[in-house]
Specification:
This protein is an alpha/beta fold. The chain has one domain: HUPs (Rossmann fold, 3-Layer(aba) Sandwich). It has six helices and five strands. A five-stranded parallel beta sheet has the order 3-2-1-4-5, sandwiched between helices. Helix 1 crosses helix 6 and helix 2 (60-74) packs across helix 3.
């Protein structure tokens, strides 16, 4: 009987320990600020890249990000869009694929800038900020998939322009399990940044080499 009691206590302690390990990253992830401004209109929209399909057609998440940016443009949230992303995962330039799709949805081509160098989210924002500076823009709404925005916010916190994040819809083809896996990966990524800071690199703002 005593042995069972000890085993039960050990099990409870182990489960509690695992629970704490899992809960802390989730709490941190949910606490990441989504904006640094109360602005409702911006100089530009920044649409964070994600790969095209291997045939060059927008992938489901890419399609939803662009569609949401088109809706925000049509609502008058910003007069310009920055599509950001190079050929990070296949031969197609994400920014160009997204621009073509946005134009097909009625956005004028001259309202869309292409940032075609970025290979990851840090570079998406770094190069988009350079475009903003070149055009004397000081504010942006950043659009991406819901799970991706907290990590983008950790990066945006190191920039001085006014920003807020805005989620695209999940593709209707995604099921709950797929979405849960994506969220789990992003929670891990954000906790890694929180715990250890960003991986050193030349495309980071000076303050971003430290953990938030």
């Amino acid at each position: 009987m005593a042995r069972r009691t000890v085993l039960a206590l050990v099990s409870i302690l182990c489960l509690s320990f695992v629970g704490v390990i899992l809960v802390r990253p989730v709490i941190f992830y949910r606490s990441i600020p989504t904006a640094n401004t109360d602005l409702t209109h911006f100089d530009t929209l920044i649409v964070l890249g994600t790969p095209c399909r291997l045939d060059g057609v927008p992938s489901p998440e890419q399609r939803e990000r662009v569609l949401e940016s088109v809706r925000e443009y049509q609502r008058g949230v910003a007069p310009y869009l920055i599509m950001t992303g190079g050929p990070a995962h296949n031969r197609f330039v994400e920014a160009h694929c997204m621009k073509l799709f946005a134009v097909s949805q009625g956005v004028p081509a001259d309202a869309i800038l292409e940032e075609a160098q970025a290979q990851n989210t840090i570079q998406n924002i770094y190069f988009s900020n350079q475009l903003m500076t070149a055009h004397n823009w000081h504010s942006a709404e950043v659009i991406s998939s819901p799970s991706h925005l907290p990590r983008a916010s950790l990066i945006l916190q190191h920039y001085s322009f006014a920003w807020r994040t805005h989620p695209a819809n999940w593709p209707s083809s995604y099921n709950i399990a797929e979405i849960a896996i994506i969220y789990a990966s992003e929670i891990r990524n954000c906790w890694q940044i929180h715990s250890h800071g960003f991986t050193p690199g030349t495309l980071l703002p000076a303050t971003a080499s430290q953990a938030p």
